[in-house]
# Entry
Amino acid sequence: MSALKGFAVRALGREDAHAADDLVHDTVVAAISRPQAFEGRSRLSTWLIGILSHKVVDYLRSKARLAASPLELEPPEDLLDPAPARTPERALEQRQAVRIIEAALPDLPEHERLAVLLVDVHGLEREDARETLGVNAAHLRVLLHRGRHRLRRALENADVSACP
# Structure
């Protein structure tokens, strides 16, 4: 449940925390009402993130129709949980990189942010992410490339090397 909430908050921003809660609730209700839809081809958590990502995209589309201005998001507090480092210096570098990525993620264009969250953070299969975002495979590759490039540039501008 916390992974679903984390995804929703990252995708929507802290100011939409209530909407994130509602989308998580809607996701659980949808999963419970149609358990036969889970075919076992992926982990249950991946299936739930897929349902939630569809709901997030729908929510963002409806919100974009209501407001012509771009979405402004506050940085999430727990984007990544880096693996333990071997040295204190490496641990500090990883923490700095995570903070920079967390700060840069909300500045990404909406589709790039969602693509990076779905594929890189939550491990959704590219085909599922492509379908969720309503883009073709080539467009998803472009979204991931651009989003990753912008995040890498933020790390370079802060003089922090990317974590492996």
